[in-house]
Amino acid sequence: MTLAWAGALGAQDAAQDEPLNLPANVSILEHKDPSVRKATAIVNGTVLTDTDVDQRLALVLAANKGEPSAEERKQLRLQVLSNLIDETLEIQEAAANKITIDKSEIQQTFDRVAGQFKQAPGGFIGYLKSKGTSEASMKRQIEGELAWRRLLGREVEPFVNVSDDEVNQVIARLKASKGTAEYHVAEIYLSATPINQAQVLAKANDLVDKIRRGSSFVAYAHEFSEASTKAVGGDLGWVRAEQLPDQIAATMQQMPTNAVSDPIPVNGGFSIIALIDKRAVLTADPRDAQLSLKQMTITLPPGSTRESAEPKLRMFSDALKTLKGCGDAEAVGLKVGAEVVANDQLKVRDLPPQLQQVVLDMQVGEATPPFGSMTEGIRALVLCGRDAPEAVDLPNFEQIQSQMQDERVNLRARRYLRDLRRDAVIEYR
């Protein structure tokens, strides 16, 4: 787990500030023209241009499916500008503390990011240009994240302590909870006040709708989440229900894997939860079994329909019923015109969700029912072997201590950035 509910904790912390003493009935003395939106800014003397915002917006859009409407694009642009302001404040604060990031380190991270986009380092620059963004925009984002991380390592981490007693208490709780459910969760946290609650909820619902239609949860967490986990795409890691607020835990326990929740009211705002996976604490997961498989694939002619493919599907299905173990796969494949490939490196959890339980219920030598599509071909998997998953060990003292320290550092980081925002001189243009 990285930072469990830093957003909610940060909101609780903010609530300890001096009350604003707002009147019960507010009269707006001068109305703001909603058609006037400030697109760029000068942050403590650093100019953020239209090009900066456009190129960073293009990065967000490149990671998501679908074309936003004109109004959605305006909202995204404002959010991108807000993120660029935070990024600028982080870089400025790092520089004030004589922290600079070497260009070679930025380049190494840039090359790793290229892999995340499934691009070779040499072709990544051209890919970014094709999406309307640039190498410079990506590298500035990388610089901001590296500089902030290094600043926290110097100015925050040394002053965060986790006692041996605290670690031992966590170890005792882990031992007591062996076999209970544990969840791999990601979050997008949006802060809200009584004044803007409806507006924030509408924004949260819009994000949920886009994610369910195929947009990237990770990309939206990077851009919109106000928890410190935004740097890791909202990933909270593995958590147990009792570690989370009651309203979050209740929703999470009812969700299927690979699902995204509706916005959940929490202290200080709303959280959107993605349930990535489930497992039992300190218990071997059958889905971690290592598989030896052979895949049989029949390719269909372009433009095939289910009706035209039915004879081949029936022939393939009948042939699979005669299969005599994995060693017979090539001979059966030759009879039905199927290509056969072997793979010994997959775990059950690496398979599509629809196939995982099917494979877990199979005996060695059996084949799955045919699956696939008219465009990708008809396939079947033959189970050649299955190695049981290794036993899960209790995290050691140092691992737990490091995790607890990271949580506290991330909470202080949120406070640190809040203070930088308060002291910033920002001129919108």
From TrEMBL:
One of its GO terms (molecular function) is peptidyl-prolyl cis-trans isomerase activity. SUPFAM superfamilies: FKBP-like, Triger factor/SurA peptide-binding domain-like. The keyword Chaperone applies. Keywords: Chaperone, Isomerase, Periplasm, Rotamase, Signal. The keyword Nucleotide-binding does not apply. It comes from Sphingomonas vulcanisoli. This is Parvulin-like PPIase. Residues 180-277 form the PpiC domain. Pfam families: Rotamase, SurA_N. InterPro entries: OMP_Chaperone_SurA, PPIase_dom_sf, PPIase_PpiC, SurA_N, Trigger_fact/SurA_dom_sf.
